[in-house]
């Protein structure tokens, strides 16, 4: 009885934790989505979707881990205005807008580091870890394959038969 | 299990420590490298803060080393670097250009009257559009340009004595020597 109630308590604790954790996540996701309130006129919904996609895509230079859409920083607001101006007023293509921001704020705004002398380890670490994992797996499998069945003596067989019969 | 493999967890632990040590001791890891480094300073045309009828363009910045300082009256760090900028203006003949970034012109003019004006030109960038051309994402930021208008150094944050002596002054002196060498060869 004591054991079962303890198990119950542990389980309800885990459920409570899971609930609170998901609430927390939901909360942060909601603030993330609602933190910008610029009002820009668009000719149609497709244009607006394109704009929203673009500001989701770029990283705010000031805040390191938020995109332009999710940031309240003044520079993010300015850059949203810039994206709007380039897209709607100047008629830039998506790639032209990417190039424009990259020329001024560097690869940082793209969330997509190119392969270079400074970034090679970001790209190669997962590959290296993958190779390491494959090597370990191969070694374990090889070791498993090397194990040979052991021949049993008549005495051992007798004991096994006796044990099985007991059951 | 060989005896050596018992030390694998310790090895992993030490490499995590090493990564943390290197990561946290990197100076200014929040600073973005400027996309303008080694590239020509963008063309611009901006209104002079102190003489609103005058337009200043990149042509005014060519021919000698230039320090472009992005500042604003709303920026406390700009206040703390102001004295150092005054010293630089007094002790060197670098051309000092201030970009008054997203600021109220009246307040900026008052600031310069009150604390002194270290700048040869002050550009009025009240909407921050020149700032975007320069890849500015805060204030203060400072660029050092060579005589042909290329960005050779960028600092995000204040110009203090340490930054001036270790980072800016050696580069400025190298630029001056290069310039003198060129004008000498021209003769």
Descriptive notes:
The complex is a heterodimer of chains A (167) and B (187). Helix content of chain A is 68%, strand content 0%. By secondary structure, chain A is mostly helical. Chain A has 3 domains: 1-34; 41-112, Orthogonal Bundle (Helicase, Ruva Protein, domain 3); 120-166. In chain A, helix 2 crosses helix 3 (74-89). Chain A is elongated, with a radius of gyration of 30 Å. The mean pLDDT of chain B is 90. Chain B has a single domain, classed as Glutaredoxin. Chain B starts with 7 loop residues before the first helix and ends with a helix. In chain B, strands 2-1-5-4-3-6-7 form a 7-stranded mixed β-sheet. Chain B has helices at residues 8-25, 76-91, 105-115, 129-133, 161-186, and strands spanning 45-48, 55-57, 66-71, 95-101, 121-125, 141-145, 151-156. Chain B is α/β, with parallel strands linked by helices. In chain B, 41% of the residues lie in helices and 19% in strands. The radius of gyration of chain B is 21 Å and the shape is elongated. Chain A binds chain B through residues 61-62, 64, 74-75, 78-79, 82, 102-106, 108, and chain B through 30, 32-36, 102, 128, 131-138.
Task: Summarize the largest interface: chains and residue counts.
Answer: A-B, 14 and 16 residues
Integer count of domains of chain B: 1
Integer-rounded radius of gyration of chain B:
21 Å
Query: Which architecture of the largest domain in chain A per CATH?
Result: Orthogonal Bundle
**Rough outline of chain B:** elongated
Distance between the termini of chain A: 31 Å
The stretches of 5 or more residues of chain B where confidence is low (pLDDT under 50) are none
Strand element count of chain B: 7
**Care to count the β-strands of chain A?**
0
CATH class of the largest domain in chain A: Mainly Alpha
CATH architecture of chain B: 3-Layer(aba) Sandwich
Head-to-tail CA distance between termini of chain B: 78 Å
Q: Radius of gyration of chain A over alpha carbons? A: 30 Å
**What is CATH's topology name of chain B?**
Glutaredoxin
Largest beta sheet of chain B, briefly? 7 strands, mixed
Task: Give the biggest beta sheet of chain A.
Answer: none
- Classified in CATH, the superfamily of chain B is Glutaredoxin
Helix-strand sequence of chain B: HEEEHEHEHEEH
> CATH superfamily of the largest domain in chain A, called what?
Cytochrome C biogenesis protein
Strand % of chain A is under 5%
